[in-house]
């Protein structure tokens, strides 16, 4: 693994920690700032809104800058946002700081994925992207539990100061390890970057992300009531099971990256099918503690196996200007977070049972398969159209210019040289 990918993973670890740690600190933040738990929940939404707005915006406006400089600048903004979160004097200041912290998230992963893919041979691009994303999955296994514990023992402000330190370490790593010559963006420009988003295959790939990842969050957003009310876990036991989700997500991320280098689309289809099966079996597997733990681990594996192929597919469909499209994929992931949780909540509100969000997630995963299948058919149709045009052009070429067609003999009786 190139050391530059390790630097990207450190940044991903810090971003993943700050994204998810707020969920564990909501009661502490709400009590300290004298707001309700639902109001504190808006701090999670503020971060997600920052991701959705910042991902395409920052990727677009930095399209002409060297990618190494962009990554360092984005991580500097991340440090500032988390430091301001730690120093926020009140609720509304913290709300603004969380929004600021979310702005560099999507652009960092988008630009970082492009850099990670350029650091290795073409046959290892997906694996390299998955190694960068490993920082995100390890954040769920190590970073979030540790940061939550620090916040509960030393105060939530200490958590955000610690995350700022991780950001500083990431900046130093990026400055030392990401090479100058291979970390530059081509001079695509804003107009060319925006033109990439007019491509139907790019939009189909983004919609696949929304549906497929929405399937995950439809179930995962309500995993605690499933584990306590259906499987019989205590609240302390839920923490251990959620760690299993992180382990499964890490394994799925690495597996997806390795398999996607062999077949990007095949890996995506396989992971989505696995996600459908796991979510459909959730109501059965949530009946005992051991099977529920297995279900949660398998959910993490299947869901995160889609990460690398989806990121790589978006980059390939927008090959002339991949940074903006890659960042837009991160915005799509956060839209899936909000949309999936909303759809899962609708299933609960309809009185369909505590495990009904998982079945709603299975339906979303089926929708993701349908969109991925449509994208495949569009690709085949376009490839067929290109081959058809090439055949028409070849049929109108003189025989002396057609590849593989021998030319008429010359006056000397020797065949003329074929056109190349």
Can you describe what's shown?
- The protein is mostly helical.
- It has 2 domains: 1-183, MFS general substrate transporter like domains (Growth Hormone, Chain: A, Up-down Bundle), CATH 1.20.1250.20; 193-396, Up-down Bundle (Growth Hormone, Chain: A), CATH 1.20.1250.20.
- 80% of the residues lie in helices and 0% in strands.
- The protein has 16 helices and no strands.
- Helix 4 (91-118) packs antiparallel against helix 5 (125-154).
- The chain is globular, with a radius of gyration of 24 Å.
Give a brief outline of the structure.
Helix content is 80%, strand content 0%. By secondary structure, the protein is mostly helical.
Keywords:
single chain, 420 residues, mainly alpha, Growth Hormone, Chain: A
Would you tell me the structural class of the helices and strands?
mainly alpha
State the distance separating the first and last CA atoms: 41 Å
CATH architecture of the largest domain: Up-down Bundle
User: Could you say which overall geometry the principal axes of the C-alpha atoms support?
Assistant: globular
